[in-house]
C-alpha cells in the first residue's frame, strides 16, 4: 500500500442509515444489497458501511442507498463522513480504474424525495479554510436548494438529487482549490413526521 499525503485521489464515505421502523434490518439490508455498488470498494459492519473509489461513484452509491430506503416512505436518518486525500488511504486502488458511467442513475432519476440535511466542510491543509467554506456555502445557493445558516453546519432543504449533486460539487471544488485533505459530514432526515407541507 502506497500512502501519499494529499496526492491520493481515492474518495470515501463512512455512513449509516437508521430507518425508524421495527423492520430496520430489512430496510438496511435491502438498501445495501439492491443498490449496484460494483464500482466501489464496500464494507459493512455493525456501526457503518464504508464505500471507497472514484468520487462520483461514492456519492452515487450513498445517495442511491438513502433513496432506496426513503422511497418506501419510512422515516430514515442518514449520517455520512466523506473524505478525500486522507494520508492513510491507499492510492492505486483497483476501483479507481472504473469508468465514469454511473450504475444507479436510471433507477433513481425519476424519484422525487425531499430531504432536510445539514453539512459541515473541513478543508484541511490548504490555507484559508474559512474562505473556502464561505465560498462553498455561497455556491450551494446556486444549486436549487434552500440554504440556511446553522451552528457548526449549514442546513439544506430540497430534492435529494439537487442536494447530493450540490454536495459533490462542493467536495470536488474544495479539493480543486488546494485542500490536501477534505472531510465533509452530512446528516439527512427523510420522511420525518416533523416535515409539514414540505417544510420542516
Ligand atoms: C449503511 C449502514 N451500514 C451499517 C449499519 C449498521 N447496522 C445496523 S443494523 C444492521 C443490519 C443488521 O446487521 C447494520 C448493518 C447501518 N445502520 N447503516
TrEMBL record:
Pfam families: Ykof. Residues 10-89, 116-194 form the Thiamin/hydroxymethyl pyrimidine-binding YkoF putative domain. Thiamine binds at residues 17, 49. InterPro entries: HMP/thiamine-bd, MTH1187/YkoF-like, Thiamin/HMP-bd_put_YkoF. One of its GO terms (molecular function) is thiamine binding. This is Thiamine-binding protein. It comes from Halobacillus trueperi.
Amino acid at each position: 500500500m502506497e500512502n501519499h499525503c494529499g496526492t491520493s485521489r481515492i474518495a470515501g464515505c463512512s455512513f449509516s442509515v437508521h430507518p425508524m421502523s421495527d423492520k430496520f434490518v430489512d430496510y438496511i439490508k435491502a438498501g445495501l444489497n439492491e443498490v449496484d455498488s460494483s464500482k466501489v470498494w464496500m464494507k459493512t459492519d455493525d456501526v457503518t458501511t464504508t464505500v471507497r473509489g472514484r468520487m462520483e461513484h461514492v456519492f452515487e452509491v450513498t445517495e442511491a442507498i438513502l433513496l432506496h430506503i426513503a422511497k418506501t416512505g419510512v422515516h430514515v436518518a442518514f449520517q455520512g463522513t466523506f473524505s478525500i486525500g486522507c494520508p492513510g488511504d491507499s492510492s492505486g486502488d483497483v476501483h479507481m480504474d472504473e469508468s465514469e458511467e454511473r450504475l444507479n442513475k436510471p433507477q433513481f432519476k425519476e424519484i422525487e424525495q425531499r430531504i432536510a440535511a445539514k453539512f459541515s466542510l473541513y478543508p484541511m491543509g490548504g490555507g484559508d479554510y474559512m474562505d473556502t467554506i464561505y465560498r462553498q456555502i455561497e455556491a450551494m445557493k446556486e444549486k436549487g436548494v434552500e440554504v440556511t445558516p446553522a451552528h457548526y453546519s449549514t442546513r439544506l432543504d430540497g430534492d435529494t438529487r439537487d442536494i447530493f449533486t450540490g454536495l459533490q460539487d462542493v467536495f470536488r471544488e474544495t479539493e480543486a482549490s488546494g485542500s490536501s485533505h477534505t472531510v465533509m459530514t452530512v446528516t439527512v432526515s427523510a420522511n420525518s413526521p416533523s416535515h409539514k407541507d414540505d417544510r420542516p
